[in-house]
Write a sequence for this structure.
DNA sequence: CTCTAGGGCTAGGGTTAA
DNA sequence: TTTAACCCTAGCCCTAGA
């Protein structure tokens, strides 16, 4: 029955999310949760959860910065799309 | 900017799509967008877009109809493959 | 190669719970 | 009431198969 309340985000999860965004860029939620570097911290999260959390984090930073119990205050994601990325999915023309 | 991510369908586009399906039958997406009768209204759409939109419209009607701006409520496409007499069976049983 | 069918994904609005 | 967390769905992309 009520095995479904709310699952609050922990600082570890938030950090994993931010680190994932820094690596893949924002919007690559499935990429992040499947990365073995972040997956362990985000086992209980879906790509939708990541998207929603990021939306909340951005809203918070853009409004106020109480920096009281703030774990992460700077959410600036540099995200440098390295050209050395091995992810090449070009299909050879027939 | 990678362009606008979402391009909402207008009532004119939806009508053109439905009319196209009524004429060629569902699944003939390329046929529809190339028809001079519907092309003007579907200039910004691809055959894939038509397919996806039709999928959404079908799902919607089969579940609920609480749309505010309900432009098209009946998406039943009779589609009579006969090249002659357009047998329009508007009779809802009995 | 072209086209369609279907799965997968994200963005944004809406809803719920605290 | 406010709001973090969660849900729903329109629209797009990717790929396999015909």
């Amino acid at each position: 029955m009520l095995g479904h309340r709310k699952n609050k985000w922990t600082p570890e999860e938030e950090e994993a999310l931010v680190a994932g965004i820094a690596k893949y860029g924002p919007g690559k939620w499935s990429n992040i949760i499947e990365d073995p570097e972040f997956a362990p911290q985000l086992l209980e999260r879906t790509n939708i959860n990541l998207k929603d959390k990021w939306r909340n984090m951005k809203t918070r930073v853009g409004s106020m910065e109480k920096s009281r119990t703030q774990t992460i205050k700077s959410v600036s994601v540099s995200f440098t799309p390295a050209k050395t990325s091995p992810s090449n999915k070009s299909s050879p023309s027939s």
Remarks:
- The helical segments of chain B are 11-24, 29-34, 47-63.
